[in-house]
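Q: What would this chain look like folded?
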Amino acid sequence: MGKYKKKGKTPQAQDGDVRAKKHLGQHFLTDESVAQDIAETLSYKGYNKVLEIGPGMGVLTKYLLKQDAEVHVIEIDTESVTYLQEHYPQLEDRIHQYDFLKYDLGTVFRDEAFAVIGNFPYNISTQIVFKVLELKHQIPEFSGMFQKEVAKRICEKEGNKTYGILSVLVQAFYEAEYLFTVPPSVFNPPPKVDSGVLRLTRKEDFSLPCDEKLFFRVVKTAFQQRRKTLRNSLKSFDLPDNLREDIIFGKRPEQLGFREFIDLTLKIQPYAISNQQ
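A: My prediction, written as structure tokens:
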């Protein structure tokens, strides 16, 4: 995918706009056409509720509200919350002033399905993905804007240097698509790097045939020493020598796709369970 081509003029900041706060990692999207295209990345299939993270001044929110869905927003910035209450009264009681990473979303959605979307702050974007993985049973679709490098990494396939923990864990449960690149000029203030928009669509069968917690542990441990073979990087599992002679242990983590990591976890699982007893 190439650079995003602007379709219209970028609005200038006006009096009464929310001031971007560096400590919150805020870079407000100002290009209407980009916002509209991000809103249209969701399919709205199998759910009718959407949660936008960090709406700021609502440039993306306005296009979400045009869809046939119940839109909720979660925003930690008091100034942004006040702005949203004044300019988007149709949100009513669906503006949640909380930290997404710490908030129990069960109080809002209970066991209902909902999509997650947003122009995510770079400084917490990977943590947002990890929380989405925790809530995957409720989140069939996830899309939004990341630092380009992070978005590419999430969607990367095995055999590449940027392939890593996030790539494996996300792709085990979701189909990941890198959609388009967005330049710094469409933000206020402009970031120093390009951004990338991606979409994650949960697989029809997203259950693993192995222990999920062990799968996460195996993947994370393997990539902590990514230049070493799995025979060396997984020493902390205290596996028997005959298992460690399996051909898969002679590979490096970036050579394994998520299916091979599942196979690896299945090989380790009997020994990991016995060691816990």
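The radius of gyration is 21 Å.
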